[in-house]
Amino acid sequence: MTELPHSERDSAVLPEDLAGFVQANLGWMMGVALRILMEKGHAEDAVQMAFSRILDKAGDFDGRGSLKGWMHRIVINEALMLRRKINSRRELDIDALQPQFDGGGCRLDPALTDQVTPEQLLESAQTVQAVTMAIRSLPEDYRIVVCLRDIEGLSTREVSDHLGLSETNVKVRLHRARAALRTLLEELRLEGQL
Q1: Is residue 4 part of a domain?
Q2: Which of 152, 143, 124 is nearest to 39 (CA)?
Q3: What is the rounded distance in angstroms from the CA atom of residue 28 to the CA atom of residue 25?
Q4: CATH of the domain at 38
Q5: What is the mean pLDDT of the chain?
Q6: Rounded CA gap, 36 and 146, in Å?
Q7: Does any domain span residue 32?
């Protein structure tokens, strides 16, 4: 549904319009919130708050951008606000997951044998689960940047604006998070779990 629910006569939200609006947008909104918060109950809370804010602020939507983009920003902001309140989970040390280099500056990686194509990796449900768990194990500041930039497809500037970081800081966090993910996934591959 591409329009906010309302009655033509008095701008009041009609129950049948609201149900259709929620049903049409619930899936993608839950996906966004879940990738940020990593817990279904918290994601549901964030989405509920986002729907409430969307309906309360419907008059503020000026139509300069897409409605979905405006709603997307609200969902992200609600999830980030809830995340700040929760912020109590144990995180990995990002430095331990960075690549190692020898004295000559060459990266020390385990030998890459029996390489598979990206298509083969994506077909495996086990791989999807491993990637999801690897992303979840990243420190929160890095995980959020990877989710917003690589999964949600936001630009560096948009991530910067959402998180209140400089674009350079977003790029550094993204680079470090991707390097950590490569390390975690390579360890799983070498153990035969991928």
Answers
A1: no
A2: 143
A3: 6
A4: 1.10.1740.10
A5: 81
A6: 10
A7: yes
